Amino acid sequence: MPPATAPERLLRRLDWHVLRHLDGQLQGDYSSLFRGAGLDLAALREYQPGDDVRAIDWNVTARMQVPYVREFDEDREITAWFLLDLSPSVDFGTAPDGRDKRAVLVELVGILARVLTRRGNRVGALLYASRVERTIPARGGRLQVLRLMAALLDEPRLARSPATELTALLDAADRTIRRRSLVVLVSDFLTAPGWERRLTQLQRRHDVLTVRLVDPREQDLPDVGPVLLRDAETGERLYVDTGDRRLRERFRAAAREREVTIEAAFRRAGVDAATISTEDDLVAALVRVARRRRRPRRRH
Questions:
Q1: Which residues pair with 39 in a beta bridge?
Q2: Domain boundaries defined on the chain
Q3: Which of 51, 78, 118, 250 has a 20 to 30 Å separation from 31 between CA atoms?
Q4: pLDDT (tens digit, 9 = 90+) per residue, 164-178?
Q5: CB–CB of 203/228 below 8 Å?
Q6: Global pTM?
Q7: Are 275 and 263 in contact (CB under 8 A)?
Q8: DSSP category for residue 57
């Protein structure tokens, strides 16, 4: 028997260490993670107070001059698309076990793809580094999960690149994903502005889940004396004294302001949003996401 490939070894490890524990935690109920994705348009009707504003059909509304909402019938098959940010800032991590944000991304995608495909659904992906590097068409089966894992493991780590533009990734998704799908956007959202409006547009057509990858040192700079910091995106270097209390306070304030801005953008877009740290247990993090998505919301 030939030796297992790197994607096969990774998938086996995820099956053993994550998936079987996740099955126990969720007791086989993954509907809260994947709800609202496999939907076919059934009808249009006038908006009524209490309707989910995300169901508004803006094209029909513009023509009729009265708000109209879309009603959907459940479809047995889900098509899921992963929009994956693999820009240099995702290669940062300070967890004790050496995990960086990219490692969390790969494991997260592997588990979600495995859960989806073993239930007969299809998964595809768009990979972004300095641009949209690759599109993996949506297919089903374990082979598709291995194909996706291989693409992620083979994607080179860039020493530097132009500033991340998530707008390009969201635009590519809008062109590529034609049928209503579950869209999972995984990024640290350290990006140039402008993506917020594109995310809102994508949410109008799909069920969107955003997963923000973070590392504790991005929110709180430790006091370790003079250090040389490097911008992961541009490679620019800056010498700072982390022993300066005012510097650390400004760093925390800037990080908090960035976090508030991103969370506000998610709320405006009406997407489900989750945050996963490099220090999180992946099983606990996914259970947390499922419970968040299980919360009741107004029906279309």
A1: 74
A2: 6-32+76-214+254-291, 39-74
A3: 51
A4: 899 999 999 999 998
A5: no
A6: 0.82
A7: no
A8: -
